[in-house]
Automatic annotation (TrEMBL):
Upper lineage: Bacteria, Pseudomonadati, Pseudomonadota, Gammaproteobacteria, Oceanospirillales
PANTHER family xrefs: PROTEIN GLCG, SLR1406 PROTEIN
Transmembrane feature ranges: none
Name the record gives this protein: Heme-binding protein
Superkingdom field: Bacteria
Region forming the signal peptide: none
Any matching Pfam family: HbpS-like
Amino acid sequence: MNDTGPTFTAEQTAEITRKVVSELLVADKPAMTLDKARRLVELGKEEARKAGIALVFAVVDGAGHIVVHERMDGSLLAAVEVARYKAHTALSMAMPTEQVGELVKEGGDFYGLGHSFEGRLVTFGGGRPVFEQNQLIGGFGVSGGSSEQDIRIARTCLQACFPVQG
């Protein structure tokens, strides 16, 4: 008796594989969603209004793709790209951008890295990695205020939306 188990057609095998892969990719894994990103930005705008400043906000997902990128009226045009770069730097380095700045200084562990990435690696405050359930799910960039203002607002938003950070 030769029992090799059930036999499946190519279409059945493809469908089973698709379902298994789909569940492995998304099942119970935290991710940066549009709703989460919008919540961060809305809270950021509220905080900016309270502080009397106009800012730009960028949220990227775990792959570095923009989820939300929003510019408040009256914010600096230069802050548009900087916010995006802050979000991407925080994600790719898995740390706040001001910590990246410390590491790329002369004598730091990543000295010289600040000159890489065609100037897109941000080494001053306002970018934060976003963790959920101890998993890195994205990056959040705030730009247009002083470094201290950008840091404070980014931190406030993350603490409100994602209370436990990496």
